[in-house]
Amino acid sequence: MMLLNRHIIVGICGGIASYKAVDLVSKLQQAGALVDVIMTEEAGEFVRPLTFATMSHRPVYSDLWEPSGKAAETHIALAETAEVLAVVPATANTIAKLACGLTDNMLTAVALATKAPLLLAPAMYKEMYAHPATQANLALLRERGATIVEPEVGRLASGAVGPGRLPSTETLLGAINMVLGRTGDLAGRRVIVTAGGTQEPLDPVRYLGNRSSGKMGYALAAEARDRGADVILLSGPVALTPPYGVELHQVQTAMQMHAAVQRFIPTADALIMSAAVADFRPASQAAQKIKKQRTVDGEDGFSLRLIANPDILGELAQTLDEPRGKGQRLVRVGFAAETEAVEANAREKLRRKRLDLLVANDVSRTDSGFGTETNKVLIFHADGAVEDLPVMPKTGVAAAIWDRVVPLLSTA
């Protein structure tokens, strides 16, 4: 997440969900952001300002009408230095004020004075959220450029179930990062990231698969989003929450992954194939669950015939010289998960598939295997250069990969 030294204002409105914003402010501060909290008078009835001051390590602002008159100067200073104004939670009352341009408190005054992008996370009773007035106000703010993080559906404070719950801190952090990254070095680019493993059905119960967790691919998708890209994430079955703001398409088999890549390739600037796509699939799929069988010699056993799946990157190598759209070529990055002869196998794959970059790792290592939070990779370049990166979190590896893709896009 690109939050270090970014100036973020979090506006807190008077709703029960305001207590959840404490965690958001804490996480932003831990990530290195400079967080200024502005509370409405009503918000102070739910959470004390001292709580947010403790989490942000900075003063909390609320009184536009304090006697010294310094608040008038303060609200301008806050408005001018803010990089994003996130209203969390955004109540129906404050949404209406923002839509009408009212400035009767510190939060709405800063909102009207700032040029920073506005992000709203509505949270309220489901009928209030669904009311035509609230929806019209949100639509108007969206037309003006505001980002609306839609509320989740679930149990509300009233006991009712419906839309109106404040999204998770993870979702809100993702939305803030997306807004901050709009002018990043991937702005205006459309990229495809594949992630996770594929599953090749044997019967209605079993499948052939691998141990890929999808963490590397999801980190790549989030990093591209944070740099301003339009991200298409093609994901095999994983136990991960997709990053906020990316276009997710779920697939199960290698054939489905192949079809999805072919569908989106014509308008893409870059493809990062981090998914562990199965090389083979069963020649046939049983309609019913396969039972234990005895071979002719009386032993339990089962014979399985496999056939090759399409080589997605290999097929694309055959079309590299064909013109695409405005004449731009597709920047392509492959992955090689190896257990032996990592460098030799990676160089051969890079050459055979005519890749721009190939990221290789030894998955037999405990700090670089499937499901780990870290990765230890070698990056092979088309010109023969090799980079040996240290062990780092997969988020760091994702940033390093995009750092190397960006210059390739400018020459594509």
Describe the structure.
There is one protein chain. The chain has 412 residues and is an alpha/beta fold. Helix content is 33%, strand content 23%. The protein contains 13 helices and 22 strands. An eight-stranded mixed β-sheet has the order 13-12-9-14-17-18-20-21, with helices on both faces. It is elongated and about 90 Å long. The mean pLDDT is 92.
N-C termini distance:
27 Å
Into which percent range does the helicity of residues fall?
Answer: 25-40%
Strands across the major sheet, in which order? Answer: 13-12-9-14-17-18-20-21
CATH top-level class of the largest domain? Alpha Beta
Shape: elongated
Features of the shown structure:
412 residues, Rossmann fold, eight-stranded mixed β-sheet, six-stranded parallel β-sheet
Offer a quick outline of the entry.
The chain has helices at residues 21-30, 49-56, 70-81, 92-100, 106-113, 126-130, 132-143, 169-180, 215-226, 254-264, 312-317, 342-352, 394-411; strands at residues 7-12, 34-39, 60-61, 84-90, 118-122, 147-148, 152-155, 161-165, 190-195, 200-201, 207-208, 230-235, 247-250, 270-273, 280-282, 306-308, 331-338, 357-362, 374-375, 377-381, 386-388, 392-393.
Write the layout of secondary structure elements.
Elements lengths: L6 E6 L8 H10 L3 E6 L9 H8 L3 E2 L8 H12 L2 E7 L1 H9 L5 H8 L4 E5 L3 H5 L1 H12 L3 E2 L3 E4 L5 E5 L3 H12 L9 E6 L4 E2 L5 E2 L6 H12 L3 E6 L11 E4 L3 H11 L5 E4 L6 E3 L23 E3 L3 H6 L13 E8 L3 H11 L4 E6 L11 E2 L1 E5 L4 E3 L3 E2 H18 L1
Parallel strand pairs: 1-2, 1-4, 2-3, 4-5, 5-6, 9-12, 9-14, 12-13, 14-17, 17-18
Antiparallel strand pairs: 7-8, 10-11, 15-16, 18-20, 19-22, 20-21
Helix pairs in contact: 1-2, 1-8, 3-5, 4-7, 9-13
